[in-house]
Specification:
Blueprint lengths: L3 E5 L6 H14 L7 E4 L2 E5 L3 H10 L3 E3 L2 E6 L14 H9 L3 E7 L15 H32 L3 H18 L12 H9 L8 E6 L10 H13 L2 E5 L1 H8 L3 H10 L6 H12 L2 E7 L3 E8 L4 H8 L1 H5 L1 E7 L1 H6 L3 H6 L4 E3 L10 E6 L2
Parallel strand pairs: 1-5, 1-6, 4-10, 6-7, 7-8
Antiparallel strand pairs: 2-3, 3-5, 9-10, 11-12, 11-13
Helix pairs in contact: 1-8, 4-5, 5-6
Length: 366
Amino acid sequence: MGFRCGIVGLPNVGKSTLFNALTETAAAQAANYPFCTIEPNVGNVAVPDPRLQQLAAIAGSAKIIETQLGFVDIAGLVRGASRGEGLGNQFLGNIREVDAIVHVLRCFENGDVTHVEGKVDPIADAETVETELMLADLESLEKRVLNLAKKAAQGDKEAKIAASVLGQALDLLRDGKPARLTQPRDDEEARLFAQAQLLTSKPVLYVCNVDEGDAAHGNALSARVFDKAKAEGAQAVIVSAAIEAEIATMPVEDRGEFLSELGLTETGLARVITAGYRLLDLLTFFTVGPKEARAWTVEAGAKAPQAAGAIHSDFERGFIRAETIAFADYLAHKGEAGARDAGRLRLEGKDYIVQDGDVMHFRFNA
């Protein structure tokens, strides 16, 4: 799977409650692929996808295995983390290892829950975290770009490319803007930019933690966060961590009625999972047979050999071609045999770009 989202936030915003509910909910899923705790603060959770059940029903699959996203409960941040305050070094190091940031913001008033800054202001909270990440990136790049410029002057071609794209990121940071606004001009610049592992290059999902009464539609505080996300090209979702914690302790069969009473059609955690998947620009393809129906994750734009490699590296190395059926065709023709008879099964080669929902079977040399 290999895609991980880091859950961050200031103290007392509901970050740990959200993560604990996530892990409890995942553990309670009726699963052939149960929640797996890799270490105390890391867990994988299934991405909801009703298409998988439809495919399994047609194929008579004995098992259903969802695609997975990893969530990491990253050590709490305090102002000054970029200078090593609190668990600053651990916090920043853990963020470098994730693919996206899930930023939990307090969007509820509660006199019994103190706020580290003395007032409830989710926009200010987001800016506190972003500032610490920008300061850390700024310190890292000022030395790196200078060294790259020296190497470029000596004729190092890769250093020249890296100095250009990271110099652009440095200018943005000096202007108080995150490195994710950098626009690499080609694939080589994109590769070198990604290698830098800048903290503010990570895509961001804002999670607005609201009271129970605001779980369906949010409130004025969450509306401000949604405006901020839209302006940044980020994403935002509304969650009540208190509700999620309660749902996590319920039998699965009771959850639908509970959600309905609150005016909700799905859990907030389902929204977080789906939004995280979308944020990382991922898509799903399927393998289907009598033993199992399984969803697999690749980045949008992946070609057929890369999809094969998501299953096993040998499949990618020895790739010959992919037998491919569009999801709609698989359903319409009642499975692989019907799709083949109708001429809807295609043989795709190495340059085929995988489409979301493709049902694939790979041919390869061992």
